[in-house]
Design goal:
Elements: E1 4-7, E2 10-12, E3 18-24, E4 33-39, E5 46-52, E6 57-59, E7 67-72, E8 77-82, E9 91-98, E10 104-106, E11 110-114
Parallel strand pairs: 2-11
Antiparallel strand pairs: 1-3, 3-8, 4-5, 4-9, 5-6, 7-8, 9-10, 9-11
Amino acid sequence: QVQLVESGGGLVQPGGSLRLSCAASESIFKVYAMGWYRQAPGNQRELVAAITSAGSTNYADSVKGRFTISRDNAKNTVYLQMNSLKPEDTAVYYCHYNNGRAGQYWGQGTQVTVSS
């Protein structure tokens, strides 16, 4: 019932930056948590970053200091600013809407490729 549309993925050189956006069809103001996950070929889907309605954030160790998650409640949008990108960051990135038993949804994903 909630649609999530990711954008901002693409091809970037190592050391470059990208900003991913996830626009939700409904309000995210009181949603328990919004997050970004990624999945590379042969790997399990892993949590990259999450942000709660209270503003608390959590990051995978591999991206701490390089990635920043934020939200704009007025636009029903969550962002992932990715700096100092590495080839290991190459994956499909998925937006996740987590409101517990009230509803959990996934976006379709956006490809991020870091290569020279």
